[in-house]
Specification:
CATH superfamily of the largest domain: P-loop containing nucleotide triphosphate hydrolases
Structural class: alpha/beta
Strand content: 5-15%
Strand order of the largest sheet: 1-7-6-2-3
Largest sheet: 5 strands, parallel
Distance between the termini: 16 Å
CATH topology of the largest domain: Rossmann fold
Length: 271
């Protein structure tokens, strides 16, 4: 499997060039799957762009998906976890329910739970923990580390109580959108959809640790993985030493994905 980067400054035509390549190759290789993964908010626009650009005005062997939609497709294909997916509204409702039960154990947050938007903020924090692979134990360590930080310590302690309550409540009944990516990473080796396919990632500024686990699996299964990266053509994309560089985050993404590729190819970490 090859890993390739599509680089260029913002507005330079990276996406257009990438889509044209995918369209051209999909016509020459009709039996191959081409997957374009974009952020959730861009799926409809990307589909419309591809249909408009395609000479046949159709994209038979090209799929436009988000990480979430890819998870659903793979779960449907291999037949796995049947728990209902808990979206943001569902998370807020669950949190409101368990927060009421645990109000006495949350000294700082408990008194603010009825304020407008407070549950939403707690839900966002818990979603971030899940996206970045921070479990209850990791949060406890962070809380202990902040003991001398006063208010921060008590807020983290309360978040830990709510996080534990949330995980206990949902563990057997529901699966969150963040957890579907972990399920996806485990199920990908069973999928025929991605095996030997060409998978392009476009519109991302970086990837979370959970998304990286999915990417590493895809690198071992797909025929080719292509990632668009915002970067000026005169930059060395493998030089990430200058943190003040305008494209430092893009270079970190390149370095991270390249390291994942090496680990996929040499599981022991040796080249």
């Amino acid at each position: 499997m090859s890993l390739r980067f599509y680089t260029g400054a913002s507005g330079a035509g990276k996406s257009t060039g990438l889509y044209k390549e995918i369209i051209q190759r999909s016509g020459k290789e009709p039996d191959r799957n081409f997957l374009i993964i974009v952020p959730d908010q861009f799926t409809m626009q990307t589909q419309m762009d591809l249909v408009t650009m395609h000479p046949c005005k159709g994209i038979m062997n090209i799929d436009v998906l988000s990480f979430g939609r890819l998870s659903h497709r793979i779960i449907e294909e291999v037949g796995a976890d049947e728990r209902p997916v808990l979206d943001d509204t569902g998370k807020s409702l669950v949190l409101r329910k368990i927060a009421g039960k645990l109000k006495g154990e949350t000294s700082v947050i408990g008194g603010n739970l009825n304020k407008t938007g407070y549950i939403h903020e707690v839900k966002s924090a818990i979603s971030e923990f899940m996206q970045y692979g921070i479990g209850v134990e990791e949060l406890e360590k962070l809380t202990d580390y902040s003991k001398k930080r006063g208010q921060l310590y008590h807020k983290l302690k309360d978040l830990g109580v709510l996080y534990q309550g949330f995980r206990d409540f949902t563990r057997e009944k529901y699966i969150t959108t963040e957890e579907t990516l972990d399920v996806l990473a485990r199920l990908l080796p069973k999928s025929e959809l991605v095996r030997g396919s060409v998978i392009a990632f476009d519109g991302f500024t970086g990837f979370t640790p959970v998304q990286n686990r999915v990417l590493q699996q895809l690198m071992g299964l797909a025929g080719e993985v292509i990632v668009s990266v915002v970067m000026d053509g005169s930059e060395d994309m493998y030089d990430e030493k200058e943190e003040q560089n305008l494209f430092h985050l893009s270079k970190k993404t390149v370095a991270s994905l390249s390291a994942l590729r090496r680990r996929q190819r040499w599981p022991g970490g040796r080249m």
